[in-house]
Amino acid sequence: MTGVSLRGLTVLSLEQATTLPYLTYRLACDGARVIRIENPQHPDPNRFVGRQVLDEDGMRGYFLPNNCGKEAITLNLGLPEGRRILRALLTALRVDVFACNQRPRSYARLGIDYESLRAVKPDLIWVGVSGFGPEHDEAAYDPILQARAGFMELTGAADGPPTVFGLPMVDLGAGEHGYSEIMKALYLRALGGEGRRVDLSMFRSAVSWMLTPLMLTGSLKEPVGRRGNTHQFFAPVSVYATRDGYVYMAVGNDRQWAAFSALPAFAGLARPQYAANAGRIADVAALNRALGERFAGLETAEAIALLQAAGIPASRVSTITELLADPLVAPGLVRVTDPRSGLTVLLPPPPAGGPPPLTFPPRLGEHNARVYGEALAYGPGQVQALADAGVI
Question: Which of the pair, 93 or 355, is modelled with greater confidence?
């Protein structure tokens, strides 16, 4: 089944950076019509980040992946005419969801606050994504929130510094939480016909993932900290170097350990004190040294084959190139081609369902003529006059 479950849903999004563009990308993957709004003089800064993959401004590599499947218009909400046009678009386009990730202090100034937009369209679902919620105007980026939410205290080697995660997990996690909040709001609107305000704090979103660490520390006074590639409660769990790469192995129970230690390649590890997980945890440093010596004599493919045959969860530590070639990934890769340049971008398969109906990321204001013509019956001359006046 292709991603068409949200077909007929219209999303108008004043978006920039990563969190909200990722959220609306997810909506576009599921068939929603997503129209991103940008200031014509000060567009999304991410348009200018990364390698210049096209011979034009505002379409650098970092901008592309989170913006496939969208339309793009420009609108200067700092001007009264821009705010008037926004209100007109809400009704003319029958917008279901308005979303923004501006600083909360700018909501009223730009005319995008919930009260103003609800007055125009009472059944509107309004989503405001901010660093710490609408009562706080503190600026925030993903690594700042990773630091404050405790993520970095849990990431890295035990004897090393706190480490940022390799992906912007706060951005992505808040995007997923925003998606679920929109689904709840749509469900409630379907039941009662009313719109809803959703304020999404990226910090609160991040802290919600800290379920186990917060409970262990706050309730049981059990310290939780950085452990590198090992696990606080299970052993052996770690990364081991092979002759040609790395293997990650996770032994999750004593039956798996018995099967593992019976393998000839790991002979000598079936000691009485290791039969139970508690004994392995107690001697984890020595156990991992012994395992490292044995894995070092194996090739990655050989080690994986042995472990999988014994029912031990394990994987090679894939490079991104290897991930692209993974037989569970490669057939589902989404290819989106730019009709102008011929450039094709590869995107991951969706988490469920078939290939999403995506178009190439839009240029700045690429759909001004279409959207303003369709929604407000503006002709080419009127669109150009608004552009010349700095309104769009």
Answer: 93
